[in-house]
Amino acid sequence: MSTPVITSNNYTVTPATKTGTAATNTNDPNSVASQQDTFLKLLVTQMQNQDPLNPMDNSQMTSQIAQLNTVQGINKLNSTVAALQTQLQASQNLQSTSFIGRTVLAPGSNLSLTNGSAQMGVDLTSASDSTMVQIKDVGGNVVRTFGIGAGVAGTNQITWDGKNDAGQTMPDGQYKFAVSASANNQQVQAATLAYSLVNSVSMSSTGVKLNTNHSGDVDVNSVRLVK
């Protein structure tokens, strides 16, 4: 907001630069101190040059003072909000370090089969009456397709017994999976969720990121479950 200009019935007073005299006592013309200094100079100048027969309107002066106070209040509020935001960000960064060494369930499609068992999840936008899971090896070949029945809206956990469609146990290692769901013969949006180990935490312009072994960089706000 620009510095208020004081007006009277007969003339307008605006800031002027005089030779050999500093216009303000501060280096920043947008600072509160500079605005106060400018306002007071304008007020004194107007009072010194007012027409005795047509003096300055008191209501006009009151309005200008109120406007200056509003500007100062907004500046203070902006400073307070900025300070709170910085504190909240620092607090979130500190809390996020507690994820290191923990296993999180977050968006992803990588699957780790260990000792003949693997866990994963799916996030459904609405309840389903049919939910199908498809497991693929690293070459993209489908090794197992199975159903988990009805699913609830939100996070659903899934367990794979490590066997293929022929009933043979697959070797431990890395796999990928996909999930499809439907309700009343209508498709339900399903987002795959993978378990990953958090190795480290990084800070970026978009927020805190969890660096995981299977799902890469994960937004801390997208974590559904922590083990």
Question: Which helices and strands, and how do they pair?
Answer:
Layout: E1 6-7, E2 12-13, H1 32-49, H2 58-96, E3 103-107, E4 110-113, E5 118-124, E6 130-136, E7 142-147, E8 154-160, E9 173-183, E10 186-188, E11 190-204, E12 207-212, E13 217-219, E14 225-226
Antiparallel strand pairs: 1-2, 3-11, 3-14, 4-9, 5-8, 5-11, 6-7, 6-9, 9-10, 11-12, 12-13
Helix pairs in contact: 1-2
Uncertain segments: 1-26
> What is the overall silhouette?
elongated
* CATH secondary-structure class of the largest domain: Mainly Beta
Largest sheet: 7 strands, antiparallel
Tell me the β content: 35-45%
CATH fold category name of the largest domain: Immunoglobulin-like
Q: What is the structural class?
A: alpha+beta
Mean pLDDT, to the nearest integer, reads 80
Number of structural domains: 2
Number of E-type strands? 14
> What's the Cα radius of gyration?
33 Å
Reading the helices and strands in chain order gives EEHHEEEEEEEEEEEE
Helix tally equals 2
Give the name of the CATH architecture of the largest domain: Sandwich
Distance between the termini: 51 Å
